[in-house]
Known about the structure:
Layout lengths: L8 H13 L21 E5 L2 E4 L4 E4 L14 H11 L10 H13 L5 E5 L2 H16 L3 E5 L16 H5 L10 H4 L2 E4 L4 H10 L4 E6 L15 H11 L3 E5 L11 H6 L5 E4 L10 E5 L1 H4 L18 H14 L4 H22 L5 E5 L2 E5 L8 H5 L3 H13 L2 E2 L8 E2 L6 H16 L2
Parallel strand pairs: 3-13, 5-6, 5-7, 7-8, 8-9
Antiparallel strand pairs: 1-2, 2-3, 4-10, 9-10, 11-12, 12-14
Helix pairs in contact: 2-11, 3-11, 7-8, 12-15
Bound molecules: pyridoxal-5'-phosphate.
Amino acid sequence: MVNTITKTTKSQEIFAAAQNLMPGGVSSPVRAFKSVGGQPIVFDRVKGAHIWDVDGNQYVDYVGTWGPAICGHAHPEVIAALHETLDKGTSFGAPCALENVLAQMVIDAVPSIEMVRFVNSGTEACMAVLRLMRAFTKRDKVIKFEGCYHGHADMFLVKAGSGVATLGLPDSPGVPKSVTSSTLTAPYNDLEAVKALFAENRDEIAGVILEPVVGNAGFITPDAGFLEGLREITQENGALLVFDEVMTGFRIAYGGAQEKFGVTPDLTTLGKIIGGGLPVGAYGGRRDIMSMVAPAGPMYQAGTLSGNPLAMTAGIKTLELLQKPGTYEYLDQITKKLIDGLLQVARETGHQVCGGQISGMFGMFFNAGPVHSYDDAKNSDTAKFGRYHRGMLERGIYLAPSQFEAGFTSIAHTEEDIEKTLAAARDVMSSL
Ligand SMILES: *Cc1c(COP(=O)(O)O)cnc(C)c1O
């Protein structure tokens, strides 16, 4: 197998120009490829499991616009529904019947959600849920885990995983200490550390927020009993448990990680998939807690474009597609084939790797493993990952440009896509 991508001149020209116009040439940091080296490709169009760059090269895509493209990019039914909605206008700033439809679908799907509020991004959902945790418990402190990402709001930019870790920024300048001083952190999968924090901060902790399966420090799964343990500890201490399912919602299972693991939090944040590729976030949970949100209650939170008809339409259609029988079985099967194949190729070519998948979410570390926490993940050979990433890109395989990001498949990925990927991986890993 030879390099299939040889000419990327247009991408280079556009990215060079972008660097004069926008910080780092991008609208979101990880896109700039800083941690893997080389130049990002500039996309022209996406369809199914594939993307095309501005030079006309085709790639198999394992980023899926960071998760939302679970039905494959530009699914014809999603696009058709969007066209129909578009003709009626792009934003109402007033109630719209489509909000009821998506709200009902989310409530039916996600065990913890009895009421939901739509916002415009995962970041917004997490900001709002934090305010709600504090408003409901009348406590200020919150526990998050090292390597978990909950958007870029000040209070969460403490040991926040991928984007931040990738750039080697321990904390972002501009975040006041006074804001993060009430953010307590513990290592992922470490119940004893959480118990100690509760003991040291008795009656001061509003709650615990986490990615129930981590995707922002690479792919890390909860150890047996970890989620259950958090449920117990929070209940014993009058604190709330919040699952940030912006990534895992409708991905790990239709009802998210909480369905998969059978642990029901008090509140949940969503995003990514529920917007079907348009900007959306949501938070929801127990009715008594959600009733505190304005205008039903006193906790203020608002949004000009929230619940807009285009985003609602893409979300509704995407969830409808996911409801078809066999969706999650297929995602699981195709992704298992991918990750088992990658791990086998790596071992046969003499590399220490570990990794895994649940449904259509996967990850592989250049690390002997096992990886239970962000500290474990950080032992990975990121320089080697960078070379692997570049080699795969040159062979037409688009992977997330960081060792600390999960990968995603879609129902549009075929056996043929997987085989092409494994052939490329064999080629690249033989010469790493
Ligand atoms: C992506 C992500 C966010 C932030 O969502 P944005 O839409 O990028 O603001 C928050 N939490 C988790 C777990 C995420 O994966």
